[in-house]
């Protein structure tokens, strides 16, 4: 779900969200129409879509409405459409999905799990609608529901979510060599997009942005572009925080429009052994300032978040011990399949209250908590894979500890059930060498810039597509990620 904080300016949508959340000086800077935007956001979040649409239509009919406010309101109309694509099930349909796993499901059981908040739903204009992934998420959130499944099929989790020889390989190599970047892997990756046939009129040009890594010394290096489809392409500058390969192609009647990019790179495992006694509070510098403080709408110090922080941290003063406590507190939030990020007003607040969260939501919550406690934190995300057939999108982060510098954190993988404390806490100070970063920040502009709304306003992992008629959302195209591990000799240890 990207440097953090210092951007050329918050979007009108972010300003409106900051108003809703009480964003202080940020909210005061809202453009004309900001109050209408904030009220509209509040109506949508409360499920009053018809009233929100009425207000949007009235506001857009005003000739004096400024352009940023107009764009923000148009996005809120699009956000309602996207929410309805996520919340597609009525109660009977949700029950039917659960019965695929629990054939003898009782209505009372469903009602009990629903009342406990284990089946995510919204009431929209008086209709109770369930999130399309709520029935499958139920089995991740409820041990009782899991035990009732007719077949105890394992979840398709990453093999790196349990301690493995690779974690020990990274830890041992770092300690033996004194290097923080070790155990390199060389990999060839192909990422592709296939736009549905006749998604746009034949002959119209489709524009696509495919994720592409930037070189990060000691983390991912020796990037070599191999090919693209079509062959004419534009690689964004290395400085682009959400880097892409841009391609375009005309649509052909009755056929999918396909785009792809292939490249190679070397990825390093990371490990830093932290001595808590050596950790001291950070002194803010111009270099660290972008990674400290709030960044509405998704990094905001709400009253509930402050309360959660106090309960987790207690009287602890050591920054590393604080980070450990916050990491453990967020790690307790169970993972579940997520709504699209563009539909959420404040992602960290959502993670705090929903009773579950995915990797990006957990990471943004942890980042917010760390910053609240004076610890710089920043975003990173991309894709994870393995020596086997597993791959998936994934988000993680980094925190800054003096005098150690930037330290890896992956709160979604969390703590292992391992007797070795260094392995148990591997992902607070370490990374595996099976993750490629596409994003060094979230919600950043592409190069070249996208003209219309993004499908994913926070992250960049699947790609983006548009044409002169507007953005193409995820229901109009599919994506794929393929990888091949290259011989170990192709990668060398670094710093």
From TrEMBL:
Gene3D superfamilies on file: 3.10.620.30
Magnesium keyword on record: no
Domain Transglutaminase-like: 351-413
Keyword Glycoprotein tagged: no
Source organism, top-level taxon: Bacteria
InterPro entries with a match to the protein in the record: Papain-like_cys_pep_sf, Transglutaminase-like
Designated name of the protein: Transglutaminase domain-containing protein
Organism in which the protein naturally occurs: Luteimonas gilva
């Amino acid at each position: 779900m990207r440097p953090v904080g210092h951007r050329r300016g918050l979007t009108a949508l972010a300003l409106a969200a900051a108003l809703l959340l009480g964003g202080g000086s940020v909210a005061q800077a809202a453009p004309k129409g900001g109050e209408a935007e904030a009220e509209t956001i509040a109506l949508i979040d409360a499920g009053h879509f018809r009233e929100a649409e009425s207000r949007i239509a009235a506001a857009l009919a005003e000739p004096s409405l400024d352009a940023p406010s107009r764009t923000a309101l148009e996005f809120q109309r699009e956000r309602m459409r996207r929410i309805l694509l996520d919340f597609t099930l009525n109660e009977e349909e949700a029950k039917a999905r659960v019965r695929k796993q629990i054939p003898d499901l009782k209505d009372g059981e469903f009602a009990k799990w629903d009342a406990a908040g284990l089946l995510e739903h919204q009431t929209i204009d008086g209709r109770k609608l369930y999130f399309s992934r709520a029935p499958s998420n139920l089995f991740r959130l409820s041990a009782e529901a899991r035990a009732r499944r007719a077949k105890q099929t394992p979840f398709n989790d990453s093999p790196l979510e349990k301690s493995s020889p690779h974690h020990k390989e990274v830890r041992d190599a770092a300690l033996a060599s004194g290097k923080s970047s070790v155990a390199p892997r060389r990999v060839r990756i192909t990422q592709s997009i296939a736009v549905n046939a006749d998604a746009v009129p034949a002959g119209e040009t489709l524009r696509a942005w495919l994720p592409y890594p930037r070189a990060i010394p000691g983390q991912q290096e020796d990037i070599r572009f191999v090919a693209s489809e079509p062959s004419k392409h534009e690689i964004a500058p290395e400085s682009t925080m959400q880097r892409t390969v841009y391609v375009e192609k005309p649509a052909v009647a009755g056929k999918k429009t396909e785009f792809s990019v292939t490249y190679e790179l070397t990825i390093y495992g990371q490990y830093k052994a932290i001595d808590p006694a050596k950790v001291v509070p950070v002194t803010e510098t111009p270099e660290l300032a972008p990674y400290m403080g709030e960044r509405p709408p998704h990094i905001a110090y709400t009253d509930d978040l402050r309360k959660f922080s106090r309960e987790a941290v207690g009287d602890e003063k050591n920054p590393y011990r604080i980070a450990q406590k916050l990491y453990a507190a967020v790690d307790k939030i169970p993972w579940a399949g997520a709504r699209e990020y563009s539909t959420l007003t404040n992602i960290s607040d959502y993670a705090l209250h929903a009773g579950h969260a995915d990797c990006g939501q957990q990471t943004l919550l942890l980042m917010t908590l760390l910053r609240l406690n004076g610890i710089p934190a920043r975003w990173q995300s991309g894709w994870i894979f393995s020596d086997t057939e597993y791959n998936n999108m994934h988000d993680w982060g980094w925190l800054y500890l003096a005098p150690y510098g930037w330290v890896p954190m992956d709160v979604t993988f969390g703590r292992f059930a391992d007797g070795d404390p260094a392995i148990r806490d591997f992902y607070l100070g370490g990374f595996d060498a099976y993750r490629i970063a596409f994003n060094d920040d979230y919600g950043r502009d592409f190069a070249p810039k996208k003209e219309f709304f993004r499908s994913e306003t926070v992250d960049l992992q699947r790609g983006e597509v548009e044409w002169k008629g507007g953005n193409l959302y995820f229901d109009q195209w599919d994506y794929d990620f393929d990888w091949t591990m290259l011989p170990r000799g192709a990668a060398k240890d670094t710093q």
